[in-house]
Amino acid sequence: MKKILVLGAAGQIGSELVVYLRNIYGADNVVAADVHKNCPDYVINGGPFELIDALDGENFRKQVLKYNIDTIFNLVAMLSVKGEANPVLAWKLNMGALFNSLEIAREIKGAIFNPSSIGAFGPTTPMDLTPQDTLMRPNTVYGISKVAGELLSDYYYEKFGVDTRGVRYPGIISNVTLPGGGTTDYAVEIYYEAIKKKSYTCNLPAGAFLDMMYMPDALKAAVQLMEADPCRLKHRNCFNVTAMSLDPEIMAKEIRKHIPEFKLDYEVDPVKVKIAATWPNSMDDSVARDEWDWKHEYDLATMTTDMLNVLEKKLK
């Protein structure tokens, strides 16, 4: 049975991944960790929880040994918009957490899941059906740290035999935890505002296509990759995964099938527009499909139905 540590358990993905993993491997076998206790009660009380600053390698290592951890899910990251506001801290956090995770995984001969992002691509990357292997020259500190993380993870696999794996996540849409400072945050906010106000003011313009994925598929991708037969993996860090390519108008049109009076207008954020313009319109995830049988379950229609049903109850 795996013994898993989830770093960044208070985040958008982490707060749901902890529950997902505990349902699969057992609550006692999944340790949730974050730098503070600002986590949902179900994360803290649903199984082991530890305060871990991923930059404090000594305490990080101590907790890994305490619980006999063999697999680390490193979800610690400062996202794109917040990273541009504080690039020095973003680099320190994103790379420091990964480096400590890799060093500890090397010591324990364990495995590590370290996700990358569509932010790893840049303005010179092919924008449509972006290939798995292509030119990657991002111009945000978040993206630069993600490319560096992919390369460093590959290095630890080749040099030290650490079982490193990861995916390049698109924008993640969730009905549980709000996002925290990313360029694709609007794709979550639009559903909340559709329920609360029947309107939304979007900070990305019409025609700003970006890849998106519903959280259940994001969680499935992480576990499916970590459980994949390593003999099939020609790539490791990181696999393109996606489910849909959307712009705000397409999302609004789908929401109107449920809420006909929904109105969408725009007040664009120049910082977000500049970042989004360097990211793919759509990714080609055929390599993930070939090497570990990746396949998304939710499309825009099924995701929208589920999002609105859940949020209708949640926001009453």
Structural features, described:
By secondary structure, the chain is an alpha/beta fold. It has two domains: 4-170 and 214-240, 3-Layer(aba) Sandwich (Rossmann fold); 172-212 and 244-280 and 298-314, Alpha-Beta Complex (UDP-galactose 4-epimerase, domain 1). It is built from twelve helices and 14 strands. Strand 1 (4-7), helix 1 and strand 2 (30-34) form a beta-alpha-beta unit.
Produce the secondary structure layout:
Layout: E1 4-7, H1 14-25, E2 30-34, H2 41-45, E3 49-51, H3 57-66, E4 71-74, H4 80-85, H5 87-108, E5 111-113, E6 116-117, H6 141-160, E7 163-165, E8 167-169, E9 171-173, H7 186-196, E10 199-202, E11 210-214, H8 215-226, E12 239-240, E13 244-246, H9 248-256, E14 263-266, H10 270-276, H11 286-292, H12 300-314
Parallel strand pairs: 1-2, 1-4, 2-3, 4-5, 5-7, 6-8, 8-12, 9-11, 10-14
Antiparallel strand pairs: 11-13
Helix pairs in contact: 3-5, 5-6, 7-9, 7-12
Give the key terms.
about 325 residues, globular, 2 domains, 14 strands, six-stranded parallel sheet, Rossmann fold, alpha/beta, three-stranded parallel sheet, UDP-galactose 4-epimerase, domain 1
